[in-house]
Amino acid sequence: MAIQSEFNKLAAEITECHKCTRLVKWREKVSVEKRASYASEIYWGKPIAGFGDARARILVLGLAPGAHGANRTGRIFTGDRSGDWLFRAMHKAGLASQPESISRNDGLKLKNAWVSTAVRCAPPDNKPTPNERKKCSKFLTRELELLNQVKVIICLGSFSLTAVCDELKIRPRPKFGHGVVVNHEKYKIVCSYHPSQQNTFTGKLTEKMFDSVFKTAVKLAR
């Protein structure tokens, strides 16, 4: 239980963070000026910690919480269409107990996987700045220290790949591409297009392409 205690401490520290003034203002504004379809709900409106299996061999790293997804529900990739895609793919790969993530209390359990983001607060237009990413980087550092069995990192989008490369001091930074695998002395880094509506609605990312990323990750994590 000691490791879970450390994760709980990290989650508490993340939740209390107020370092990025722009992000604090935005996440709180969104939680008050709610989307009409969620008008009756109480928004989380705070930074989001990662979640999953503390003994995970696969880390899935996204960009940042969705304004009306995780910023509303309080759990990363929960309550929006990106999360629908992510957990459906993870369920197919045997990494999630169910194919959807609706709320913090929906019973979802991850097996051999941990899900997190490079930036912990919902940003305006889904675009955190490099400086905001740097301010959040210590949380990724701590997660990787605690997730000491991780062998594979799935980067959802180039922003996440940049965060990982900076964290692991990978130079020169590899060019991002869907399905690209980057070899590091400790990790295999698998790149994927982010399951944002911009990518899924246009067909830039298909379910077959996304499923393939998780099949690769599971194979590399063995």
Concise account of the structure shown:
With 222 residues, the protein is of the alpha/beta class.
Describe it for me?
- A hairpin with a 4-residue loop joins strand 5 (181-183) and strand 6 (188-192).
- The chain has a single domain, classed as Uracil-DNA glycosylase-like domain (Uracil-DNA Glycosylase, subunit E).
- Helix 1 packs antiparallel against helix 5 (130-146) and helix 4 packs across helix 8.
- The chain starts with a helix and ends with a helix.
- 40% of the residues lie in helices and 11% in strands.
- The chain contains eight helices and six strands.
- The protein is α/β, with parallel strands linked by helices.
- A six-stranded mixed beta sheet has the order 1-3-2-4-6-5, with helices on both faces.
Give keywords.
222 residues; alpha/beta; Uracil-DNA Glycosylase, subunit E; six-stranded mixed β-sheet; 6 strands; globular
